[in-house]
Amino acid sequence: MYAFEFHRPKSLSDAVALLAKSQGKLIAGGQSLVGAMKLRLASPGNLVDVSGIAELHGIKREGSSIVIGATTRHADVAQSQDVRGGIPALAELANGIGDRQVRNMGTIGGSLANNDPAADYPAAVLGLNATIRTNKRTIAADDYFKGMYTTALQDGEIITAVSFPIPKCAAYIKFRNPASRFALVGVFVCQNASGVRVAVTGAGSSGVFRATAMEQALAKNFTANAVKNIKIDPANLSSDIHAGAPYRSHLIGVLTARAVAQAMA
Amino acid sequence: MGTSVSLTVNGKAVRADIDPRLLLVQFIRDHLGLTGTHVGCDTAQCGACTVLVNGNAVKACSALAVQFNGVEVTTIEGIGGANGDMHPMQAAFKECHGLQCGFCTPGMVMSAIDLVKRHSKANLTEQAIREGLDGNFCRCTGYHNIVKAVQLGAANMTGT
């Protein structure tokens, strides 16, 4: 790991100032960043630790949405009565990230800022049509994800919370890589008043994406059978030692059908 | 250069000025001399470095010591009784032969304690134990006796 300086701001405004001054990186749980720094894939000169800022932490219900603070840990989302009651699929998703030790450290804001192409939270944010709140603005899910490890966040912008509208029903199913436990493919299906959304993680060559053909079919007929004959073009899917694009394409169909069945159950 | 960190380790207050690059596991082993916490894979997979942070299992190889300012860390050295008695979970691993080489055992025990804390007795099924330990690798035992040990440890932890 290359040398860096470490800062512990106590407020969001202090964090914003420190980040601007130091041109550093934010750290919350560090479950992706510390590993990347150990491998020297990342070498920030300054780290600004936002995990101690009270205003970025916690879960609350606001009207018909669940709002989760950026530094809320996966384990806390998984156990939250508000999340389990309002969006059980989101609690399930949080409970399946990494392993227990990772869930005790990793945060929702960190996962979304990193936008790993196989991360789980991007599928929930895109599938549930959530809104990312930052210190500067709010960003709709459809405008937030910009490709692998790339987001709409600007330099110095800090995610403060994520607002998830409570859907009619939803489910997330992932097919894990048996060694890394990351999603080889993960599908989040959501039905709400304005229609159906299907978000796919782990498979897209540009990160998380919406399977619009599936959405249209499910809007007409929300059953597992409705997506039976819909193929996702493998041309836009990733291919690596773990799975080829055609296999990922096949998995998207299978997992979408299963997610629909689970959402209806 | 140094960053100050103050925390409690096994009930004792610790304060140090350290290079912020220092991993929590290096701090525990090299600075505090508590070598029961092991480094296995060093990549957040095997769980041999698991310690409890405010009661929650964390992989100490994948976090910076300076991230743990103001918290309470418990290592395998800190769970036994003051009189030297083993913690009920340690005793259960011994009783059930839940180890062979023993390298993964400190991490297994710490994870198991977290697991028991988060489950009611009825919810701590064999399946829940197997899934709950997916962040801890044992390359000797095949896990069967580890699962038995966690079941026995959980039963004996009741009320402690």
Question: Count of DSSP helices of chain B?
Answer: 5
Overall geometric form of chain A? globular
Structural class of chain A: alpha+beta
Could you estimate the helical fraction of the residues of chain A in percent?
A: 25-40%
Task: Give the H and E element order of chain A.
Answer: EHEHEEEHHHHHHEEHEEEEEHH
Helical fraction of chain B: 25-40%
Specify the oligomeric state.
Answer: heterodimer
The overall pLDDT average of chain B reads: 95
Largest sheet of chain B: 5 strands, mixed
In DSSP terms (H or I, runs of 4 or more residues), the helix count of chain A works out at 11
Percentage of β-strand residues of chain B:
15-25%
What's this model, at a glance?
The complex is a heterodimer of chains A (about 260) and B (about 160). Chain A contains 11 helices and 12 strands.
What can you see in these coordinates?
The complex is a heterodimer of chains A (265) and B (160). Chain A has 11 helices and 12 strands. Chain A is an alpha+beta fold and 265 residues long. In chain A, the strands form 3 sheets. In chain A, strands 4-5-8-6-7 form a 5-stranded antiparallel beta sheet. Chain A has a 4-stranded antiparallel beta sheet with strand order 9-10-11-12, with helices on both faces. A 3-stranded parallel beta sheet of chain A has the order 1-3-2, covered by helices on one side. The model of chain A has no long low-confidence stretch (mean pLDDT 97). Chain B is an alpha+beta fold. The N and C termini of chain B lie far apart (43 Å). Chains A and B meet through helix 2 and helix 6 of A and strand 4 and helix 3 of B.
